Amino acid sequence: MPVPDRTVAEVLDPAVPDPIDLGGLPTDLLVDCYRHMLTARLLDAEAVALQRQGVFPAYVSLLGQEAAQVGSAAALDRGTDFVFPTYREMAVALAFGVDMVGYLASHRALWHGGYYDPVRSRFGAVNAVVGGPVPHAVGWALGERLRGGPGCAIAYFGDGASSEGDVHEAMNMAGVFRTPVVFFCQNNQWALSVPNHRQIAGGSVAARAAGYGMPGVVVDGNDVAAVYRATREALDRARSGGGPTLVEARTYRLAPHSTSDDAGRYRDAEEERYWRGRDPLPRLAHALRSAGLVGPDFFEAAERDARGRVTRIREGVASAPEPPGTDMFDHVFREPTPELLRQRAAWCEEERP
Amino acid sequence: MTTSAPAARGERDGRADGAAPARPAVLTMQQAINRALAEALAEDPRTLVFGEDVGRLGGVFRVTDGLQRRFGEDRVFDTPLAESGIVGLAVGLAMNGWRPVPELQFDGFAYPAVDQIVNQVARMHYRTRGAAPMPVTLRVPSFGGIRAPEHHGESLEALFAHVPGLKVCAPSSPAEAHQLLLQSVRADDPVVYLEPKARYWERGPVPDDGPAPPVGTSRVVRPGRHATLVAWGAMVHRCLQVARLAAEDGVELEVVDLRWLKPIDADGLAASVARTRRAVVVHEAPLTAGLGAEVAALVQERAFRSLAAPVQRVTGFDVPYPAGPLEPKYLPTVDRVLLAVQRVLEF
Ligand SMILES: Cc1ncc(C[n+]2csc(CCOP(=O)(O)OP(=O)(O)O)c2C)c(N)n1
Ligand SMILES: [Mg+2]
């Protein structure tokens, strides 16, 4: 499946605006971030293609949000922390080490929560209720504090979600209980067709933090180093008993809301062009190159690796087995009810050839 | 039902150690639930009790009285006033290995939490293919009969029983309240536990924790042979009143306490109707799409040939629970149940 070949050209484009400051961050970390961002970019395009081919019924692209997702994920401790995602956190999953075939099984509509184990992956099931998983992060973090564990929870949500009551209830509870949780808002400027100024009163999402007794930070969400630093600082605070933080990463959803959406109905191409000029990938590439942190072959080699990985994931998800019909009965309860068992038996009987 | 209750005592003072079996403690339902919560907190360090005013105050109905003092502020705590947040908190706690027993202060205020209950608690096990079980017991003081303000007396059982992934129960007596609560908190599935507040102050013997009938078992609380009355929560008491009155006229009514509203004991219902050939189901909730319809459907599916008359439903009306003086007219009265009994007998 051919992938649009824009990546290399973008990466090597020297005229990149808005330089980013890599100062003080280890090269390994930055290189890993670049690899994850590039892989996410390619995998995202592949997922869109899979939707066009009818393999996925729908897909929600994260194009343009790679730095916000990978930078924040890179700050997490994969052994102790727990991620509560929405439906758009594919690059977080990738950078956090989630089984990507299992993750994309959700988008292939094999199983709503995908095929990965959210508890062992420490990455909650894909959740389509806008704002719904945010209080779960607070509960998880409270539970972690009660048993004296070292972990932090991070709740991802959008600018639109920031209007949901659940998000406000969650932030207030976290402030009251001082739970080790980071509220990570990807403000990608749009909640489906509704822009920021019709969504957020009070100037910013971050401003709301003050009312909930926690710091609120605005960060350039297309600057992976800045996102990493802000998330890391929030996690350090949480881990040392300093309570929650709200991080608002300003970024942009370069793609339509989903493959079913037509963004041309509500926003103009000029705005998209502006943000394409702030694409987080070339910004990082440019910084890596101009700081002399990577050799001349790095970008091509990284792209080769990324493409190889993407191909394996695509093949894995396209050939993943459909669940047996009995699965729809078998996961409802730990202890199924007699009625459910009766329905299961009747269904099996009807299905028998 | 035990007829001769031992002298009332506030709290049971431990198990008898001698040869003679201890007489069961006599507790109010609210004390029985309190005792079950204390036992649940004591037996499993992962159990947590939380909600609005449940800590220091001990709950508006004092159901959690003394628990915070005994088990500490980490195990029994007040939350901010946010029902959806409370249930969402329970989801995250369960995902981190805890066994949450949140309280929603009043039935009508479960509505703000319906999204978390239906979309999250009930589905997390399913969504995660069993990786994230939800051993959550959601306590909801429920039903009418105390002339409460609006939203403080509602019947939510049909709503929750309809939701895949939830189990629902409602005790009718202190003993049932104790047993069903322990059973709910020990279950690995989410259970909505509906407490009939009109019966909170009813006293009754509460045997010690012991083997319980499986989840989904009903109980014949009064045997009879002319017709079966099916009820749960406070309406069990109402049906027993009816049965006593009917007995004066030589009509022997069997009263079945459903106990579990999901799973419903279809076999138990069929067995009772096989004996009596007639059934009247009584509930507080409005008629239309209420659980009475489910009971009637189950009875005709399982016991069609036994039936001598169509199943009758005696329920609240299709109106919101009305205020003060109208509430007793809304709730199924003894007379309305007796009329339905007459209809099934004379059919
Ligand atoms: C509670 C709820 N309401 C509505 C929707 C439909 N919906 C899905 S995504 C979306 C917009 C969300 O915007 P935002 O929170 O900014 O996240 P983004 O999609 O931009 O990542 C809407 C309205 C939903 N999934 N859940
Ligand atoms: Mg958005």
From TrEMBL, chain A:
Domain of life the protein comes from: Bacteria
Reaction catalysed by this enzyme: N(6)-[(R)-lipoyl]-L-lysyl-[protein] + 3-methyl-2-oxobutanoate + H(+) = N(6)-[(R)-S(8)-2-methylpropanoyldihydrolipoyl]-L-lysyl-[protein] + CO2
GO biological process: branched-chain amino acid catabolic process
Assigned keywords, A-Z: Oxidoreductase, Pyruvate, Thiamine pyrophosphate
E.C. code: 1.2.4.4
InterPro entries: Alpha-ketoacid_DH_E1_comp, DH_E1, THDP-binding
Function: The branched-chain alpha-keto dehydrogenase complex catalyzes the overall conversion of alpha-keto acids to acyl-CoA and CO(2). It contains multiple copies of three enzymatic components: branched-chain alpha-keto acid decarboxylase (E1), lipoamide acyltransferase (E2) and lipoamide dehydrogenase (E3).
Domain called Dehydrogenase E1 component: residue spans: 34-323
Top-level enzyme category: oxidoreductase
GO MF assignments: branched-chain 2-oxo acid dehydrogenase activity; magnesium ion binding
Descriptive protein name: 2-oxoisovalerate dehydrogenase subunit alpha
Pfam families in the cross-refs: E1_dh
Record-linked SUPFAM superfamilies: Thiamin diphosphate-binding fold (THDP-binding) (SSF52518)
Co-factor(s): thiamine diphosphate
Family per record: Belongs to the BCKDHA family.
Automatic annotation (TrEMBL), chain B:
Region: Disordered, residue numbers: 1-22
InterPro entries associated with the record: THDP-binding, Transketo_C/PFOR_II, Transketolase-like_Pyr-bd, Transketolase_C
Cofactor(s) for this UniProt protein: thiamine diphosphate
Top-rank lineage group of the source organism: Bacteria
Kinase in keyword set: no
Molecular-function GO terms, alphabetical: magnesium ion binding; oxidoreductase activity
Database matches in SUPFAM superfamilies: Thiamin diphosphate-binding fold (THDP-binding) (SSF52518), TK C-terminal domain-like (SSF52922)
Pfam families, alphabetized: Transket_pyr, Transketolase_C
Domain (Transketolase-like pyrimidine-binding) ranges: 27-202
Keyword line: Oxidoreductase, Thiamine pyrophosphate
Protein name per UniProt: Alpha-ketoacid dehydrogenase subunit beta
Organism the protein comes from: Marinitenerispora sediminis
Origin organism lineage: Bacteria, Bacillati, Actinomycetota, Actinomycetes, Streptosporangiales
